[in-house]
Amino acid sequence: MEELNKNRYKCAHEIVEEILQAIKNQRDISTCKKLLDFLQDDVPDNEFLDRIVSEELFLQYYGKLRKRDKESDARRLVDELNVRKMKKLRLRKLRITISSIAASVVMIVCCMWQFVTVNTEKIPEGRLPEQEFSCDKPTLILSNGLKLELQGEANQLPDGLDGIRNIDQNRVTYEGRDSVQELIYNTLIVPAGYTYNVELIDGSEVILNAGSRLRYPVAGNGEIREVELNGEAYFKVTKSSLPFIVKMSDSFVKVYGTEFNANNDGEGDIEVVLVKGRVGFKPGCGDEVMLKPNQKCDYNSENREASVSDVDIREYVAWINDEFDYEQVPLDYFLKKVSAWYGVHFSYDKSKIEMIKFYVSTKRDIALSDLLLLIEKSTNLEFVRESEFKYTIK
Question: Which residues contact 103 (CB under 8 A, 6 or more apart)?
């Protein structure tokens, strides 16, 4: 069986290379001999091969095209495949036709083309198209309990309230207030579909991802650099003799000047990825774990185990550029990211998807329906919409 699968993948890879070469040389797809042989083969598992071909085309063409970001290439491929669907290859009696393969690639490229060329209306940085879903806006809770929506009309604040220097569409900044000895806090809440930046009183910067909350000091004696995080955030911490502490559930990260990504999913799993500098992760029970750049610490509060591994940090910080960018990511992990960004919930049998790996490289302003269709095309799964914000995976 393993040898059979290897042969299938080899066959799919050769078909994809042939199709892409034909497109590159502006030749008719009907000249692709390996593709024609594949279509006329009567083996019982052509559906499996069709899925591999679709996924290979996605990986090899869509991924490269997105990096080049060329409108002409996207337009030519879409036109080419649409024309071929209607013309020479009319193999109606075959169970899998060139049209089905072309259609899958058209869908993939059109999905990418949507944010490269078609969408001429500029979408504000750090948020989804308004029509994708409606939700609350980023909200700041001041020390006196006042709640401010941070997007929309400018907020009029009394001078110096809670040390706030400035608020705009995507950022709030603070200035130190040495005269105030009482320790007071603000809380920033970022809902689905948004990211938001905050510059703390010590100059450190935090970028908060969708579905996240950060509680942080805005005044005090100057010796407290401690914040509480629920959700995901990217930290750029200014150097100081005083440690900077990020509390997550019963654990914390301790740094002195560095850049890192931290994720507390609220379900007992904590993830810390170090970009620059050096940090220590201290679980609620257990010894401190030290991280070096390009390393990730995973902690599960249920079994109270922390593990460190070398990683490609690009996958874990792409979100700060409003991107999903993963290679061979476990699908259940990716679905958590999708859930937080779009504000939706997925119900599924974890055992059914835990072994599935997924590739994706796209801007996060992609429509949810298009993203789910991409997943369906690369897997045998089906997303059934139960309500506005709930899906069941079958």
Answer: 81, 85
Whether the CB-CB separation of 360 and 326 falls below 8 Å is answered with yes
Nearest to 380 by CA among 106, 51, 108, 96: 51
What stretch of H or E contains 248? strand 244-248
CATH value of 139-316 in 1.50.10.10, 3.50.50.60, 2.60.40.420, 2.60.120.1440: 2.60.120.1440
Q: With bands split at pLDDT 50, 70 and 90, how would you rate the model's confidence at 253?
A: very high
Residues 6 or more apart whose CB falls under 8 angstroms from that of 341 comprise 128, 192, 193, 209, 210, 211, 364
* 323-393: CATH topology: Phage tail protein beta-alpha-beta fold (3.55.50)
Pairing status of strand 244-248 against strand 226-236: parallel
What tens digit of pLDDT does each residue of 80-109 get?
A: 444 443 333 333 333 333 434 444 443 444
**Any residues with CB less than 8 A from the CB of 195 and at least 6 apart, and which?**
126, 127, 170, 207, 208, 209, 210, 319, 320, 322
Cβ atoms 129, 98 nearer than 8 A: no
| pLDDT tens digits along 353-363 | 888 888 888 89
